[in-house]
Amino acid sequence: MKIQMTLKWCVSAVLLTSIVVLAACGSHSTQPTDEASIRSAIVGKVWHLEKLFLRDVSSDTDLTLEFKNDNTVSGFGGCNDFNGTYTLQDDNLKFGPMTSTRKSCGAGIGEQEYSYLTFLSTIKNVRLEEDELHLLNDKYSGAMTFTTGDQGFW
């Protein structure tokens, strides 16, 4: 009887330990924080804006961002194409001045585009989580959240 209880306790302890170890493995993913890994993950992909900090972006317009190896960036602001420069050092990201075409697309889209480009100029850090790119600043809660569309979003 004593051996049987000890055996049950040992089996229970092993099962509990296995569950804890497996749960820990699945819940932690290492995100790159070094410049080379971040650059490799973001360059050459078209990123689609999903959230402008805590606000969802209208699905009527596809606001994009594309990082290039030569430290230039381009994209679509909802009405106009834009381009500019960026600097990346570790997980610190800063955008230079942006230039854009000058089409007029109405007040709503124009305001959204202005907000998008203005917020890009405030970005301080970049964070990657699975298929999402998060651009953060010191002023606002949340992040500018982008996806690549590689997972069936687009």
Kindly describe this structure:
With 154 residues, this protein is α+β, with helices and mostly antiparallel strands. It folds into two domains: 1-30; 35-147, Lipocalin (Beta Barrel). It contains three helices and ten strands. The protein has helices spanning 2-27, 35-42, 107-120; strands spanning 46-52, 55-56, 64-67, 72-76, 81-89, 92-95, 99-100, 125-129, 132-136, 144-147. The N and C termini lie far apart (62 Å). Mean pLDDT is 81; it is low at 9-29.
Count of alpha and pi helical runs: 3
CATH class value of the largest domain:
Mainly Beta
Number of domains: 2
What is Rg? 22 Å
Strand content: 25-35%
Distance between the termini: 62 Å
Q: Structural class given helices, strands, pairing? A: alpha+beta
CATH topology of the largest domain: Lipocalin
Q: Which CATH-level-2 architecture of the largest domain?
A: Beta Barrel
Organism: Pseudodesulfovibrio sediminis
Protein name: META domain-containing protein
Keywords: Signal
Pfam family, one: META
